[in-house]
Structure formats: C-alpha cells, structure tokens
Specification:
Layout (H helix, E strand, L loop, with lengths): L7 H61 L2 H21 L1
Length: about 90
C-alpha cells in the first residue's frame, strides 16, 4: 500500500507520533480539519481548472473567428487598432 509515496511502515510511524502529540481525544478533530483542508484545496483546484479551460475555449473561438474574417475585414481591424493606439499615445 503506497499513499503519496508513503508506505505502510512510514504511515504507522506518523500515526503513532500524531497520537502521542495530539492525544486520543484531539486526533479525530485534527483528522477532520485536515480532511476539510484537503477537500477545499481539491475544490479550488477544480475551479481553477474549469476557469482555465473556459478561458482557453474563448481564446480558441476568438482565433477561429479571426481566421474566418475576410482579408479586407482583417486589414480594417488592423487600421482601427493602430488608430486607437495612436490616439491613446497622444492622450498620454
């Protein structure tokens, strides 16, 4: 049995040390707290992963839309962006 790279003998030593440090009454509370922390970390990780995938799909859609534009439309967008950036430089 190998959990997080820790074998059964190492796990037993960790449990004995935890029992000695926290005592039999506090050990369940510590276990629950640790479990809640791990669950919160997993939820945050999943949320981050979902947000990352959503942003990646939006970026992919933007690239597809840009690729589908006619060359004239693309040139018009470039000119518009250049004029916008030039006006922003003049304001600064």
């Amino acid at each position: 049995m190998n959990i997080f790279g820790i074998g059964l003998p190492e796990m037993a030593v960790i449990m004995v040390v935890a029992l000695l440090i926290f005592g039999p009454k506090k050990l369940p509370e510590v276990g629950r707290s640790l479990g809640k922390a791990i669950r919160g970390f997993q939820e945050a990780s999943k949320e981050f992963q979902n947000e990352f995938q959503k942003e990646a799909s939006q970026l992919e859609e933007a690239v597809k839309t840009t690729a589908e534009l006619e060359p004239k439309q693309l040139e018009a967008l470039k000119v518009e962006n250049e004029s916008t950036s030039a006006s922003q430089k003049n304001q600064a």
